[in-house]
Amino acid sequence: MGKRTIQLIDVTLRDAPQCLWATRMTTAMMADLAPDVQWTEMAGFPCAGTFIGRDAIIANVFAVLGRDWKNFGFTLERLIDGGDTVVGVGDYSATHGATGKPMQVRVVHVWQVRDGKVRRFEQFCDTLLVHRAATPAANDGRAGDRILIY
Q: In what order do the strands lie in the sheet with 33-41?
């Protein structure tokens, strides 16, 4: 197996205006993605879905996060090298722009790499915590919750 290099970056742009978020991500990260990369954000996440190609990822993931969240960041805690599959474990943190509520959630990123380029990406996180931060207090799923046991 040939030598490969993956550069993971801290995507926190705490000092950048939110309108520049997606643009700065393009420069910093998109170069290591294959042109036809398959990028999957978990169901229930604000920008859930599978997107093909860099432009679709920028428009449907990073632009949405930059628009709706303040200081959205990913902090990498641990990197697991599985050869062509690399797993990053860490935390997202942000404050929702409309609700003002903070969010910190554990996240796992799974990267599949071939020929020095990321070919697939898949995200796993606790989407309920993200949803609670993005939802006004009266509707965040806490008040009036019922647990049904059968």
A: 49-52, 33-41, 117-125, 102-114, 85-96, 69-82
Contact at 8 Å (CB) between 73 and 12? Answer: yes
Whole-number Å distance between alpha carbons of 75 and 70: 15
State the pLDDT at residue 23. 47
Q: Quote the CA–CA distance of 43 and 50 in Å, as a whole number.
A: 10
**How far is the C-alpha of 72 from the C-alpha of 127, rounded, in Å?**
15
Tokens found for residue 46: 């604000």
- Work out whether strand 33-41 and strand 117-125 pair parallel, antiparallel, or are unpaired: parallel
Backbone angles phi, psi at 29, to 5 degrees: -125, -35
- Rounded to an integer, what distance in angstroms lies between the CA atom of residue 93 and that of residue 87? 19
Continuous H helices in 7-134? 21-29, 54-57, 63-68, 127-134
Buried b (16+ CB within 10 A) or exposed e, 105-123: bebebbbbbeeebbebbbb
The residue written with tokens 């801290």 in the block is 10
Residues of the chain with pLDDT under 50: 1-23, 25, 144-148, 150
Q: In this predicted model, what pLDDT tens digit does every residue of 77-109 receive, in sequence order?
A: 888 988 899 999 999 999 999 999 999 999 999
Could you say which architecture CATH assigns to the domain 18-134?
Roll (3.10)
